Amino acid sequence: MPRMKLVEVVRAPQTSDATLAAAVRFVQSIGKLPVVVKDSPGFVVNRILLPYLVRAGQLFSDGHDPETIDNCMLDFGMPMGPLRLLDEVGLDVSLHVAKTLSTAFPDRMEIPSILNELVEKGLLGKKSNEGFYLYEKGKTKPNPNIQPGASPQSSAQKIQDELTALMSEEAARCLDEGVASSAADIDFAMVMGTGYAPFRGGPLRHAHDTNLLKRSFY
């Protein structure tokens, strides 16, 4: 999202401390907010977002309409819902990222079939005026040309709980693998890089405060 100020500064195994420090200073000098991350698929932000976005696509295929899914996350405090975010980023761009991460993490980042289907039809989201939503004459509404599946199974609260848990779980994996050096860095990246509900403090702060993952992060 172009208005976000976060920059993930990637440290490769061969990156010297001096080079890293220079990169951080440069990012700060152009008015951006750096967070240092390890060179790994998706870094922090895309890696944590993708399971959430993938599941949102699956929920659509299960029968939940876009507004129901997105409103669950708006109620949680996100600046926009996951399907609207996919449209904003571009479904083709999202599919490219999903292919990379599904190769790295096939057990939990399988590409939802609806994403392939929409891209194959040339429905790329907002930039093509049509994706999960229809964009015309300055108005946005669920796209009547695509239909969700026929058997929705989850309540709004269950959808919200599941989607937020997916982000917290992936954030915990990033911490355990050293993709970022602290829970605070991961939460900072998600709040500043995605608008993750600021009053909740980030996916690990949320998990810590609610005991969601049955472990402490702070």
TrEMBL record:
PANTHER family per UniProt: TRIFUNCTIONAL ENZYME SUBUNIT ALPHA, TRIFUNCTIONAL ENZYME SUBUNIT ALPHA, MITOCHONDRIAL
Any matching Pfam family: 3HCDH
The name this protein goes by in its record: 3-hydroxyacyl-CoA dehydrogenase C-terminal domain-containing protein
Record region (Disordered): 139-158
BP GO terms, sorted: fatty acid beta-oxidation
One example GO MF annotation: enoyl-CoA hydratase activity
PROSITE patterns in the cross-refs: 3HCDH (PS00067)
Signal sequence region: none
Keywords associated with the record: Oxidoreductase
InterPro entries the UniProt entry points to: 3-OHacyl-CoA_DH_CS, 3-OHacyl-CoA_DH_NAD-bd, 3HC_DH_C, 6-PGluconate_DH-like_C_sf, FA_oxidation_alpha_subunit, NAD(P)-bd_dom_sf
Sequence ranges of Polar residues compositional bias: 142-158
Organismal lineage: Bacteria, Pseudomonadati, Verrucomicrobiota, Verrucomicrobiia, Verrucomicrobiales
Xref: Gene3D superfamilies: 1.10.1040.50, NAD(P)-binding Rossmann-like Domain (3.40.50.720)
Presence of keyword Oxidoreductase: yes
Chain ranges of the 3-hydroxyacyl-CoA dehydrogenase NAD binding domain: 3-39
Ranges for domain 3-hydroxyacyl-CoA dehydrogenase C-terminal: 42-135
